[in-house]
Specification:
Pfam families: mTERF (PF02536). Belongs to the mTERF family. Keywords: Transcription, Transcription regulation, Transcription termination, Transit peptide. One of its GO terms (molecular function) is nucleic acid binding. This is Transcription termination factor MTERF15, mitochondrial isoform X7. It is built from 27 helices and no strands. It has a domain of about 70 residues. The chain starts with 9 loop residues before the first helix and ends with a helix. Helix content is about 65%, strand content about 0%. The protein is elongated. The chain is mainly alpha-helical.
Length: about 450
Amino acid sequence: MAIRTLGRPKFLIQLNSIHNFNQEFLNRVFKQFSTDPKKALTSIPRKSHERNLISLSGLFRRYGFQPSQISNFLKSNQCLLNLKPSHVQKSLKILLSLKPSQEFLSSVVYSCPSILDFDFLEKWETKFSDMGISNFTSSAIRNIFEVSRRFELGPDDALRCVMCLKGLGFSESTVVNVLEAFPLVIMMDEDRIRDKMVFLMDIGFEKDDVDRIIRLFPFSMAFEVGKKMKPLFDEFEDLGFSLDVVRWEVLRDPRVLGMEVGELTQCLKMLRSLKCRTVIKENIFRIGAFRAGYEVKMRVDCLRKYGLTYRDAFTVLWKEPRALLYEIVHIEKKIDFLLQTMKFDVFCLVQVPEYLGVNFEKKVVPRYNVIEYLCSSGRLGDEVGLRGLIKPSRLRFYNLYVKPYPECKKLYGRYAAAEVKSRHPAGMWKLFQPQKHSESREDVENIRSFMESIT
């Protein structure tokens, strides 16, 4: 007789497995909650953040933002996910009402994302119209927002500053330029702003001149009268320059006010110690001593912008004063070519300052083309540095790198044929030969009788 074994019903097995799974899940959750309660609740805010992320992405797309930039922008600014999308939309509408430009909207939002806070931006909705400036630029509005947000300033602070500048007689364009270049003027009180204008007018500038100076060099509003401007004009006087000369140079280029105290003295000292040809020195001082010193300062700043130290920049200009005769645009063009095309380091200028004193189109580019071609074709065994490129004379460079390779004559341009040309026109040598006279029989007899008498 077969024995029949009874197993447990299937539904009981399923209920038991479900019970065990739920028990394990609850134990895991309670354990996680007991160790770190925040981790157990992350799923809820994570879902809300995901919903906000999707909503904000669609909102930015509707307002013209590039889809490729939205994801990176929201990832780097997680605080925006805590804002309500409806409030962000209202903030975007306020920004567009200030200046209906997609470029303005993108630049403001990307540079200062925190201004999308509706509670902050709502206060500014009507303040810009109260300032009475019709030509506010995008950068001026952006700078006002950034400074106000960073230093917790209100719209009344910006309004007070703008009304102060206009009350002192500055034009709208000057006020806008100041807010673009030096937005921290919002934090200055009226007395400090007035002191600068009074100081310049006491020197002899007219009110319109002061407005022009501030408009062309708005960063001068950052200079203190007692600490910067007065010592600077005292230095000009100690150097022997009259107020008429100083006023003319400031009106010619207001950036003169940005010089550090003692800087012009150092520049003029370097110029007077130059050891170069008289013609070069005369051309440098042809524009006047004051302007010559200022031109040195501008070129020193240019070289420092590329990474040279203050000392190295002065050394380069002292060794190669011809660089002072080139415009700054041409100097920048040479240095960019040196760094980007020739792949040299900027400190090579300290070793070979002559590079800044030679003609770019006539000497630098043709020689580089020849050397680059020879290197690429494997004709040169050793690498040619900047010194070997600039130092040789035109004849020596031609004989070394151009004459042995006929295909390089085309790269070298019209300067290849210039080396073999004679310095004088053809047939000129005939004029320097002694004149020949025909000898007659009588002359021969006279010479013979003279020689016989001597013997």
